[in-house]
Write a structure and sequence with these properties.
There is one protein chain. By secondary structure, this protein is an alpha/beta fold. It has four helices and four strands; from the N terminus they run βαβαβαβα. It has a four-stranded mixed beta sheet with strand order 2-1-3-4, sandwiched between helices.
Length: about 140
Amino acid sequence: MKAHIAANPNAGRPTILCWGLSSADRGKLDGMAASFGMRIVPVMPTDAAKTVACLLGEAEGGGAARALAPDAYPAAALFANFRPRDLDTLLDLLHQAQVEIPLKAAATATNRAWAFDELLGHLAAERAAFARQAEAEQANKPPKA
């Protein structure tokens, strides 16, 4: 007898994992969903230990039972399974609609294995490093004549 493996209906479907979006920003994103054939998956504080792959529906299981405070990190979005030009278009539309998502990333083979709270930590650290670099560059600029 052969085992039957159910196909994942969401495999390869453009998906956004969202953390901490305001209701207004979530509404704008929902309004764009049909145009991109994407699904939007809100990540709850109790899902923080689950891997990105698990949250995307690509793997079973989760992680250790731990939760984040809802305001532990700024709003974040992880984009998975988008064609590059579609992601560029979506990011442009989000910018035009003034959707506030300070932490953004694309899903990769590496970060799919991370717990979602690890991903948020990496993104927040990168954002802080970029801000420090920009601040240092601004401080080192010669004054305009």
